[in-house]
Structures are given as C-alpha cells and as structure tokens.
Specification:
alpha+beta; 24% helix; disordered N terminus
C-alpha cells in the first residue's frame, strides 16, 4: 500500500514522463517558425536537405523536455537530449573530443581520445543531472543489449558520453527532476529527420548572449577530391549545440554587433549570474582517422568565436566529434581504415566552422521568452529587431519602400 507521499511522487514522475514522451520525437519545435536563414542571415556554405545533424546518414536525435511547476512552487525547466551516431545499435564510430575551456563536464571522453572510438550515444543535460543520466544510459544499453551471462566487460555502454550546461537560472536545478525514465524516453524516441530547436531537451533552460537559447543544429554538404585526378565525392558535416554562454555586448551575427544594437530586454533576476557554457557535437560521413576527427572537432571553437564568444573563465566549452563506423576486423585479423589524405581536409574543416556557427544562431533564433524559478525571466530575441539591425549593416533584404502619398487634388477654379 502506497503512502500519500509515495503516491504523490509517483504521480509527479508519471506526469513528467508523459511530457517527456510527448517531446521525444525530433520534430520541429514550433511548426512554421523561422530559423536564422529565414530571417535573411546569408550564411556561407551549402546546407544539407534538413540543415541538421541528421543530414549525416544514420544519426538520430531525441528529446525529453520537462516544463512544469511543482506543487511546492518550484519551476522545472530542464530535460535531456540524446544523439545516436549509429542509431539504436552498438556499432562504434571513429571519434574524438576536445576542450576550449574546461569549466564543465563531458564524461567518457578520456576513453574516446585514447581509443579513437565513440562507443555510446551522446547525452546532453543540466549540470546536476549528469549522474542520473550517466547511470540511465548504462541501464538502457543493458536492457537493449543484454550482457552475456557471466561475461566480463560485455555491457553495451560502460563509459557513456554525457555533457552538461548549467540551467539553474531558470530551472530548479537542485530539485534533481531528471529521472531515468526521461533518459529512456529521449533514447527510445531518437529518430532521423528534422530536429527540434530552442527550449527542448537539455536546452530547455539555457541562455546565450543573455537571450533565451538552447538546442540548435545545422549541416553542410561539401565536395572533396582526395587527389587532383580523383573524382569528387560528396560528404556531410553536421553540428548540434546546447548553447548557454556569452554576454550581451559580445554577441555578433556575421560580424554585426547585434548585442550592442539591442542592449535592452536583459534577463530579469534579483541577483548576478555567471557566464554559462556550450556543448558542440559534430558528425560527418567523411572517411577520417581519429586524429583527423580531432582536427575537425577543434574547428568548433572557430564557429563559436564567430558569434562573439571569448570563452570566459566560468564557461565550459566542450566539443565531441564522430565519423563513420569502425571497420570490421578482416580474415587476416586486420582493420583497414579508408581515409582522406590530410591535404584534402580543408573543405571539411571549413564546413565544421560554418555548421557550428549556424547551429548556435539557430538556437538563438528559436529561443522564446521563458519565466523560471524565482520569477527569473529570459526574453527571446525579437526577430523584427534582429532583421532591422542586420539591414542597418547591409545584410538581408531592405525594407519595403513606403507607399508614396496620394497627390493632393488640384484646387478648384
């Protein structure tokens, strides 16, 4: 027999699980809402069909989004994002991780860099939920891929990759509202196709440039020749970010000082707040070796810099990148890794910078005003004012000319 407190807790978990399941599919967050390109931002490079990390074949993304107010007055504004590089499988990918500023956490990356392989899904959440998400990924893997009876080290995901950014400005982060059920919902719901942006999943309570921000994604299609006489081959680089960094005066879009041009609508808070962090996930189908994937990974910092970030002391700017699947061991006991030569990498490196920049700005454009814990409020970037600022600097379509006034009638004679 359940006590009243136990029943209430169960009902609370059930309600949030239902919300998580409803938000798990990677469908557009707000149908018909514009992305940065739709506002006239002329980014460099050619995006893939979805302009999302899921343009890389096999990649799935899922979310669990928690937005509710508890009976005792706490605001829950958080969630979980799951990125599955090879879908719901145990197939490992070529991988590498890197750091611009290390005031944050991205678990499992020591082994990613040591082995050159990414062995698990990538999960993004809030700072105080890393532990529960880490444990839940292992549990999900063991449930989906049961370990061999009596076998050591046969678990699917013993060292999962879990990243965090701090959402305590809007979310009751010390309430530990993310539960294993939410992680399972994000993983089970991961799909290819369009990806939700803004206040979804792990990005629900995130802020960048002191505007509401969160999850953003983008991609680039590129043509690469391995040598002068080789045929050109098409590849994709995709980026997904959980953006939670930066100060208003530093925010730039294509070099335009947007933060200085729109200095008002600052977050409403009773006290000071520190800079946050950013997580960047890069994926590609180009055949690269681990050290080449690491070079791709480091280019995320340049895409971040294009938006005005200087990676301050309190910012955790952590990046991870993955490539194609690990090749099998052949009959001779060898793994044979096809790879592009280093001299052919420039288009991929450029694409990583471009996709990271656009993913961040898509997260910014998708952000909508949100009220959180203690009444703290973060405003969404007003699209009309952004377009006006860009036009002021010669970017985007000029405003439609005002209609000329009708001529005054000739005086009667």
């Amino acid at each position: 027999m359940k006590t009243h407190a136990t029943a209430a807790a169960a009902a609370s978990i059930a309600s949030t699980v239902l919300l998580a399941l409803a938000c798990a599919l990677p469908c557009p967050a707000r149908a018909g809402e514009p992305r940065a390109r739709d506002l006239g931002v002329p980014f460099d490079g050619e995006p893939g069909p979805l302009n999302a990390i899921t343009d890389v074949a096999g990649v799935g993304v899922g979310f669990a989004t928690l937005v509710r107010d508890t009976a005792d007055g706490h605001a829950v504004r958080t969630g979980v994002t799951a990125i599955l590089p090879r879908g719901k499988s145990r197939t490992r990918s070529i991988g590498a991780a890197c750091t611009l500023n290390g005031n944050g956490e991205l678990t499992g990356t020591h082994w990613v860099n040591e082995s050159g392989l990414l062995e698990s899904p990538i999960l993004l959440t809030n700072t105080h939920s890393v532990g529960v998400v880490h444990d839940a990924v292992i549990a999900w893997g063991n449930r989906r891929f049961p370990p061999q009876p009596g076998g050591m080290l046969s678990e699917a995901f013993s060292l999962p990759v879990v990243g965090e950014t701090y959402d305590g400005f809007l979310n009751d982060i010390n309430g530990h509202h993310v539960k294993p059920e939410h992680v399972f919902a994000a993983l089970d719901g991961a799909r290819s196709g369009p990806v939700a942006e803004g206040s979804v999943g792990g990005g629900t309570g995130m802020v960048c440039g002191e505007w509401k921000c969160g999850i953003g994604t983008s991609s680039r299609r590129i043509s690469v020749r391995g040598s002068d006489d080789a045929p050109a081959r098409e590849y994709t680089v995709g980026a997904l970010v959980q953006a939670n960094y930066g100060r208003r005066p530093e925010l730039r879009i294509l070099g335009v000082p947007v933060g200085r041009e729109i200095p008002d609508l600052l977050p409403l808070t009773p006290g000071p707040r520190k800079d946050g962090s950013i997580l960047v996930v890069l994926g590609t189908d180009a055949p690269l070796l681990p050290h080449q994937i690491a070079r791709l990974c480091r280019r995320a910092s340049l895409g971040l810099a294009r938006t005005g970030s200087v990676s301050r002391q309190t910012s955790g700017d952590l990046f991870i990148a993955f490539g194609p699947a690990e090749p099998p061991v052949d009959k001779d006991g060898l793994q044979r890794f096809p790879t592009l030569p280093n001299d052919a990498l420039d288009p991929l490196l450029v694409a990583a910078v471009q996709a990271t920049e656009e993913a961040i700005l898509n997260a910014l454009v998708a952000g909508e005003t949100l009220v959180g814990i203690n009444g703290n409020t973060v405003y969404g970037l007003p699209h009309d004012r952004l377009k006006a600022v860009l036009r002021k600097y010669g970017i985007g379509a000029p405003p439609a000319p005002a209609s000329a006034p009708a001529p005054a009638p000739a005086p009667a004679h």
